[in-house]
Design a protein that fits this description.
This protein folds into 5 domains: 2-60, Orthogonal Bundle (Helix Hairpins), CATH 1.10.287.610; 72-297, D-amino Acid Aminotransferase, Chain A, domain 1, CATH 3.30.470.30; 304-407, OB fold (Dihydrolipoamide Acetyltransferase, E2P) (Beta Barrel), CATH 2.40.50; 413-565, DNA polymerase, domain 1 (Orthogonal Bundle); 572-652, Rossmann fold (3-Layer(aba) Sandwich), CATH 3.40.50. The chain is 35% helix and 21% strand. It has 24 helices and 24 strands. Strands 12, 13, 14, 15, 16, 17 and 18 form a 7-stranded antiparallel sheet that branches. A 5-stranded mixed sheet has the order 2-11-10-3-9. It has a 4-stranded antiparallel sheet with strand order 5-4-7-8. Helix 1 runs antiparallel to helix 2 (33-50), helix 12 crosses helix 13 (436-445) and helix 16 crosses helix 17 (504-513). The longest helix has 24 residues, at 2-25.
Length: 653
Amino acid sequence: MQLSKIDRMKYLVEQLNLAAKAYYAEDREIMSNWEYDKLYDELVALEGETGVILSNSPTGKVGYEAVEELPKEQHESPMLSLGKTKSREELQSWLQGNEAVLSWKLDGLTVVLTYRDGKLLKAVTRGNGEIGEVVTNNAKTFKNLPLKISYQGELVLRGEAVISYSDFEKINDGIASEEEKYKNPRNLCSGSVRQLNNEITAKRNVQFFAFSLVKADDVDFHNSKKAQYEFLREQGFSVVDYKMVTEDTILDAISYFEKSIPDYDIPSDGLVLTYEDIAYGKSLGRTAKFPRDSIAFKWADELRETKLIDVEWSASRTGLINPVAIFEPVELEGTTVSRASVHNISIVKSLKLGIGDTVTVYKANMIIPQIAENLTGSDTLDIPEICPVCGGRTQIRQTNEVQSLYCTNENCAAKQIKSFTHFVSRDAMNIEGLSEATLEKFIEQGFIHEFADLFHLTDHRENIVDMEGFGEKSYQKLIDSIEVAKNTTLPRVIYALGIANIGVANAKMLCKHFDYDFEKLRSADVETLSAVEGVGEVIATAFVEYMQDEAKKQIIDHLLQEIAIEVLKVDAESQTLSGMTFVITGSLIHYASRNELKDEIEQRGGKVAGSVTSKTTCLINNDVTSTSSKNKKAKELNVPILSEEQFLEQYFG
């Protein structure tokens, strides 16, 4: 019996660690919060029964390791996660007669801020609780964060960086392709705060809400958590919404927060209860993972049983076919729901779905409908062997332990419609007047078969003018927009092609690296492309496969005959760094980001690579004594390591 429990624990540890890696390090989800909590609680129970805690158990860890692209820094004091409960009565009894602060538990990215002499000195993400990522330049773009405060001592505080639901929806509304839309505000925020280019962070409207004061030595807070919050407010910080509670008032306060959820614009996944008496809270100490002065309350998911009546399969422009569960309507958190995304084939299989099965459904964070469990588990659902749109063969493909369904027919109408929608979108060719519905009509009528055909719609003037929803005015407006789009830039064209994993930023980066020379870019091999900073082997392989496909080559050649790509004019005398290659690492002083310095180097004809080689002119690193892999490589190859000041004096002086 003990052995079978240990085997089960090993399985749970493996699954939970995979889910944590996906969530914290890769900003994607391979299981629902409900499923994660269920498996985690089962692991905790088994550890209690057996007295065994495996070395890699998530019950002894906090978060996930920081990614390598940003500088890392150790926190002065560990950032522990909180113990949790879903029981209101347990939360009430936890108080033990003490007054406490009850606040939202926001769902974003935890950040530690340090101010000195009234100025923001440093911002570091939570990371794994011990070591985080330095995101100071990005934090300076948080739209509600004070860069200067009146307090002149050293102030350290913790808070949550978040993107509101309304801003999240606006950002997604600007993305034409359904597949490229962000899944939830938390993932978007995490990716935004950890950008290497803080210009991107600034565009995402990230907000910061303080929830804990760590240090302000010479201020008397009268042993009060509430006084700390008021002090932070006086300094200009937005503080997480809270209520003071006792055993007599806490249940009403929980109900107040619960009723506020539908209208609360900031993502949250529960509440946090912290003792008002700071000294008392500190005197309780901590466990290996949890502090004892605070506890998290997660909403007990409102579960409803219903019957699965269908699964819709929706095809996208890349061929990905997404399963959506259709079930008998049920009331959840005050609204009627009848649909829930099942995300991918892996989740379909894990739920053992079958039409007619009895399932339980809930709203993740009381917002997003999800299937919790399949009570029948018939496992009889047929995975489509043909695409629901074109009838072409489907194929299950696996990426990072996740299986997904794809249509293999390159001429699938869904792929064409989504591809054209993406091609004309704002960040691509920016052609107004071509909605997805209009493009669908044009494809059905045979007006367009490939991208170049969009620039010959004048051949179909009479038919278009007579179409429902069109007329002379709408037609002329469309043609005018197409004329404007003919004069474009190379990054727009590369992004518009819809190559897998090539977003706006990657398109710009690739074009810069190849001096805006399309022929050089389209003929580059995987190895060359992989060496471009921020491009990895996956993106490079997808790009090369696209460019080497004979049908795609023809489509591109036809398109190039219709458009004029702006040629970047370069003053030869300003190309003082021509033929030189630099590598930048670590944080900078004179530049807001590494990308800003990179842009200036490239404007002078130089190149910036992601790794040190024998061809590297110099490595720019303000920590010249660092034992990082790049510094070690530079020393091995006798490549000079220059501080930012030394570099500027030698090459920009």
